[in-house]
Design a protein that fits this description.
The chain is mostly beta strands. The chain is about 5% helix and about 40% strand. The strands form two sheets. Strands 1, 2, 4, 5, 6, 8 and 9 form a seven-stranded antiparallel β-sheet that branches. A two-stranded antiparallel ribbon has the order 3-7.
C-alpha cells in the first residue's frame, strides 16, 4: 500500500488499467465499488450486488468521501484499486449507522474504473 499524497488514505493497484486517459479532478467517472468496514469485515455496499448498478460521480471535487475522492485520482479504465480510508477521510466520528459503519470506522474500498469522461 502506498500513501495518497497529502492524505492518510492508502492505495494499492490490484489490476493495471489501460490507455492514456486518467481520472483527473473534475472528470466524470463510472466505477464498480465495494465497501467493507475494516474493523468488522462487513460489506456495507457493492455496485455488483443484485439490483445495483455502476456508480457515477465527479472526481476530486468533494462529491464523495475524501479518501475515495483523492484515492481515485490517476486511475485508468480497467484499473482495480484498493483504498484503505481512515475514519477522518471517510464518515468520521459519527460513522454511517444506517449502513453499519460505526463511529470512527475505517473503510476498505475496492474500485474498478469502467469509464472516464
Amino acid at each position: 500500500m502506498e500513501a495518497v499524497p497529502g492524505y492518510r488514505t492508502t492505495k494499492r493497484i490490484v489490476q493495471e488499467g489501460t490507455g492514456s486517459t486518467e481520472v483527473t479532478k473534475g472528470a466524470t467517472v463510472t466505477v464498480h465499488a465495494t465497501g467493507i468496514v475494516k474493523e468488522t469485515g462487513k460489506k456495507f455496499w457493492s455496485t455488483k450486488d443484485p439490483g445495483q448498478q455502476p456508480f457515477e460521480y465527479q472526481a476530486g471535487v468533494g462529491g464523495v468521501i475524501t479518501g475515495w475522492d483523492q484515492g481515485c485520482l490517476g486511475m485508468k479504465v480497467g484499473e482495480v484499486r484498493e483504498l484503505i480510508i481512515p475514519a477522518d477521510e471517510g464518515y468520521g466520528s459519527r460513522g454511517f449507522p444506517a449502513w453499519g459503519i460505526p463511529p470512527g470506522g475505517s473503510l476498505n474500498f475496492t474500485l474498478e474504473c469502467l469509464e472516464i469522461k
